[in-house]
């Protein structure tokens, strides 16, 4: 046995143990060896039962489950790393901070199970003290343990609470995964969230916070996105509160060592089944399956899984052309514009000031912040989101300009101590070729009701995964893992 095949076998054994409940949902595999037949990293041709395009959480999870079910798998990943939108942003001193996905919540059980299997521990997001609210030039502090939770007590708060209650109730009539089937789907998909929010709130405070709800969850303007899409996003997360809250919500927990540890460890177990630096350019459906052409390698397989957002899948040349519903969907499902800016300090000084490190602001580059410090608080890391219009305003900015803009926001929110970090770092996603933005693809009006079913419907031997296809926690790491588990079952059954 060569070193490579020994490694592969060891990796597969670990996978079988790791995949746990997800794998036991698959039919028991035959006596066939559960190995991938990945070719050496530089081989120009390879074959497998299944070729997976994309080594983000969805693609990696699908690979794990299919290998456990006895299928051979090759994963083609465009970047030189696994994880996609989950990425440890280098801080310049040999350490990293989450530049992409970061938080999970208690109902995000599939990403939690995967992390546990990978031996990645979790710890609570720092949430002690008051939050900062900056609006109309005025800074105020507010506690988040009252009935409003994370909602800042703006003058428009009653107006806002009524609006949030209404959208929460509307979302209850949506079946996760099938928003287009809701009784009012046509009505809700014929307007943007902006249109609805202006018709259903009066105060400028409520309107600002409704826009901020969209900015901080989807990184788009409220006028970019269909009301139906937002209602489905809420339904998929189990309500408004799980989306916006830290305590009890989707921002409650972080990963020790950074979220990227989860995909990196899973990728390590998949070993040679993953080929990096292999952007897929074309997928041809043939009589016997698919031929997938990537830089440096051509893979033949019985089935293909495209595991990424619809917008990025749209860059691949499909031959013959895909059905119009899918091809047009990929033209109509844009990504948000999002970036993270972090300042690293000797201590998390805001904690001593009685602050959580969480803030919402109506001006400046950063509109929301979190405490990104490590669990032992051996240093303080403040993270700010630069969303939608704010990041596009920095299109032509130099690194110095971006640093100045980020620190200006931090200083406004946390005082002069924020002006002198040890170092700063910045990661934007909307000009990343293999992501095109983030955190998630969104649907403008008219898309879900007309093209929505094409999100998941296979096109012959080509199947679709990615967080955008998930019924539960779509847009999140949990949704990505769930989509990988769902597509693995789908493909295993079809083979
Ligand atoms: C700034 C930011 C903050 C976020 N915060 C959170 C958070 O706190 N909590 C949370 O749960 N989620 C968060 N998310 C969302 C989360 O990152 C995603 O939901 C999840 O990672 C998506 O995984 P995926 O596998 O569906 O897609 P991706 O991660 O996008 O994976 C797709 C993969 O396909 C590869 N690829 C693309 N095109 C090709 C091609 N042609 N050939 C080969 N490979 C290709 C890409 O390189 C990538 O590796 C955040 C995202 C961003 C950007």
UniProtKB/TrEMBL annotation:
Transmembrane segments: none annotated. It comes from the Bacteria. PROSITE patterns: TAT (PS51318). Keywords: Oxidoreductase, Signal. Its cofactor is FAD. GO terms for molecular function: oxidoreductase activity. FAD binds at residues 58, 77-78, 280, 468. Residues 57-491 form the Amine oxidase domain. Pfam families: Amino_oxidase (PF01593). Residues 1-33 form the signal peptide. SUPFAM superfamilies: FAD-linked reductases, C-terminal domain, FAD/NAD(P)-binding domain. Substrate binds at residue 385. PANTHER family: AMINE OXIDASE. Belongs to the flavin monoamine oxidase family. This is Flavin monoamine oxidase family protein.
